[in-house]
Design a protein that fits this description.
The chain is α/β, with parallel strands linked by helices. The chain has a domain of 49 residues. A two-stranded parallel ribbon has the order 1-2. Strands 3-4 form a two-stranded parallel sheet. The longest helix is centred in the middle third of the chain and has 14 residues. The chain is globular, with a radius of gyration of 16 Å. It starts with 10 loop residues before the first strand and ends in a 14-residue tail after the last strand.
């Protein structure tokens, strides 16, 4: 269900030829679109490198003082089993 508090912007860092949406890194696009995040909470999910860059870009650089959160990345052990 759409909400006035939710915005979805598809962004590709390596788009194909037919891509007509936004290009670049999602944290950079978010910073361009929302230069003042002081009244917002940021939740970043993705690879550890991406979430760290999002934290640096959005939470440290452009005034997101409330909350910056990314889930803990953990790997579960892979068990081989033969049936």
């Amino acid at each position: 269900m759409p909400s006035e508090n939710t915005c979805f912007t598809p962004v590709l860092s390596r788009p194909g030829e037919g891509w007509q949406g936004r290009k670049g890194h999602v944290q950079d696009i978010a910073a361009q679109d929302h230069p003042d995040l002081s009244e917002y909470e940021v939740f970043a999910c993705g690879s550890p490198a991406m979430t760290e860059q999002a934290k640096i870009c959005l939470c440290n650089s452009i005034s997101c003082r409330k909350t910056c959160f990314s889930p803990t990345h953990s790997r579960r052990p892979h068990h081989n089993s033969s049936v």
